[in-house]
Design goal:
By secondary structure, this protein is mainly α. It has nine helices and no strands. Helix 5 packs parallel to helix 6 (about 120-135).
């Protein structure tokens, strides 16, 4: 079974006390240190702590979600998750490469004919796969990450000021000369 972010949240919620949660995270870190992929490591850690394999609960129609909120920073280690963590950080401005990655995820969210080779990075591919498989991550993408790509009010105002008004450069120079003579 592929472990999702939602599964990890449920695992952490099941670890009702700090000791169980610490043991879960400790086993997970140990598995990652030994080369086990991040999501698989969570499943193996769950089996160590609870003595049974993790089984995703079946969805029931009309069931209201009741989960402990988990910050994305609590679920780290996956290649794409490190990239996404950086993107969500409100104190950082995205670099051009990160903007390209987020734009690529946005552009390919609903496309079925894309593969890992089409992605600008494995992080972008992993993030796209997580967005597609987990509605919570998809909502987070559209509400937190994607808006960072949109221009701010000051950027829009600056663009309006810098917009070309289709006048020729010579007419601007003539206007400056006339202004200078008035001074």
């Amino acid at each position: 079974m592929d472990i999702t972010i939602g599964d990890i949240k449920r695992m952490l919620a099941e670890a009702k006390d700090a000791d169980a949660e610490g043991a879960l995270r400790g086993y997970r870190d140990g598995f990652v240190d030994n080369g086990v992929a991040g999501f698989a490591a969570w499943g193996m850690a769950y089996a160590e702590v609870f003595g049974r394999e993790y089984v995703r609960p079946e969805k029931k129609a009309g069931r209201k979600k009741v989960e402990r909120k988990v910050k994305r920073s609590e679920v780290v280690g996956e290649a794409h998750d490190d990239v996404v963590e950086g993107l969500v950080d409100a104190d950082r401005v995205m670099t051009g490469n990160e903007r390209d990655m987020v734009q690529w995820v946005f552009d390919n969210m609903a496309k079925d004919d894309v593969g890992p080779g089409d992605a600008p990075s494995m992080g972008a591919w992993g993030y796209l796969m997580q967005c597609r498989s987990d509605d919570t991550i998809k909502r987070s993408f559209y509400s937190t990450v994607w808006p960072k790509l949109l221009p701010s009010r000051s950027e829009l105002e600056r663009d309006v000021q810098m917009r070309d008004d289709d006048r020729e450069l010579e007419s601007h120079l003539e206007e400056l000369k006339r202004w200078r003579k008035r001074q």
